[in-house]
Amino acid sequence: MRNLMRLTSLMATLGAAVLLAGCERPPIDAVQRGYRGLAMEQVYNPRTLAAQIPQNQPPAAMDVGSPDGPKAGQILQNVKVLGDLSIGQFTAQMAAITAWVSPKEGCVYCHDLANLADDSKYTKVVARRMIQMTQKVNADWKPHVAATGVTCYTCHRGNPVPALTWTQPLAQDKRADFIGNRNGQNLASPSVGLASLPADPVTSYLIKPTNIRVVGTTSLPTGNTTSIQATEATYALMFHFSGALGVNCTYCHNSRSLGSWAESPPQRTTAWHGISMVRNLNTDYLLPLGPTLPKSRLGPNGDTPIVACATCHQGAYKPLYGAQMAKDWPGLLATNGTPAAAAASAPQ
């Protein structure tokens, strides 16, 4: 009898340990962000922050080159972007991109050292388009990135491929149709906080301008036409936002009325512009590069990697905690139709 009681006690202890494995041990910090009584708090795990902070530091400052001298496009061959930089600025920009993207591989990651003008390496074709994408973000998406801007380092962090690009989860094996259509759910995916939600909200919402809504704008029965599946997918997207930025719902929403724009913090508007920006980058820059990429760079379903909120933020409410990244690099502030010098002198 005594042994049975010990076994029961041991089983109860193990069961409690399993149940608590998904919980965070105290202490947890809570920061009030809104009116008291509305649960407008941000909850932080200090141990998670301590591990995250070193990973979100900006790179060491680098020489940006002199603006004096002839333009790179006048000296070098096949310079399709950044040609309006001085040769000194261009060289400095190339050195910076190497440090930000391929510090181990060096220049040969994109270039044939015997012929720097050669475009035969797919990495050079991709890099050129990524420079144009960075220019687009800094020039035309200020409602989201403001004066902070982005550089290659914002996403790459010293890696040839950003650690948190998005590819579709492996499709359900249709040979097992007897289990029914899982709708991408019940897979305990970290992308949705291990909840029973669709594991791929990014493809659904951050490529096409799909309406993100749970609650209708008028009363039932005709007001709310949102399906249960759309509601689940919307919550999955919110899980992605929360994990990508390291925040909870009240960073963008008022807990009294999650759907009310009038009562939401200003971060919700910034996030709205961010959603539009990510869609633009995916449709105009990332997806068209699919045919250029080798099969080894594609997702498990053969899909092209795209960007999501986590690609830049990587767990921080602002990428690199808002470090001013782009201001020293005029070549990354301009679009193709704007001279770099003019972009550099524009109000930031």
Looking at this protein, list some descriptive labels:
single chain; 348 residues; mainly alpha; Photosynthetic Reaction Center, subunit C, domain 2; 2 domains; two-stranded antiparallel ribbon; globular; disordered C terminus
CATH topology of the largest domain: the name is Photosynthetic Reaction Center, subunit C, domain 2
* Spans where pLDDT lies below 50 across 5 or more residues: 337-348
The topology string of helices and strands comes to HEEHHHHHHHHHHH
Assign the CATH superfamily of the largest domain: Photosynthetic Reaction Center, subunit C, domain 2
Q: How many independent structural domains?
A: 2
Describe the protein's architecture and organization:
The chain folds into two domains: 60-163 and 327-348, Photosynthetic Reaction Center, subunit C, domain 2, CATH 1.10.468; 164-313, Photosynthetic Reaction Center, subunit C, domain 2 (Orthogonal Bundle). A hairpin with an 8-residue loop joins strand 1 and strand 2 (41-44). The chain has helices at 2-20, 46-52, 72-75, 87-101, 122-140, 142-145, 152-156, 201-205, 228-245, 267-286, 309-313, 340-345, and strands spanning 29-32, 41-44. A two-stranded antiparallel sheet has the order 1-2. Mean pLDDT is 85; it is low at 337-348. The chain is 36% helix and 2% strand. By secondary structure, the chain is mainly alpha-helical. The protein is built from twelve helices and two strands.
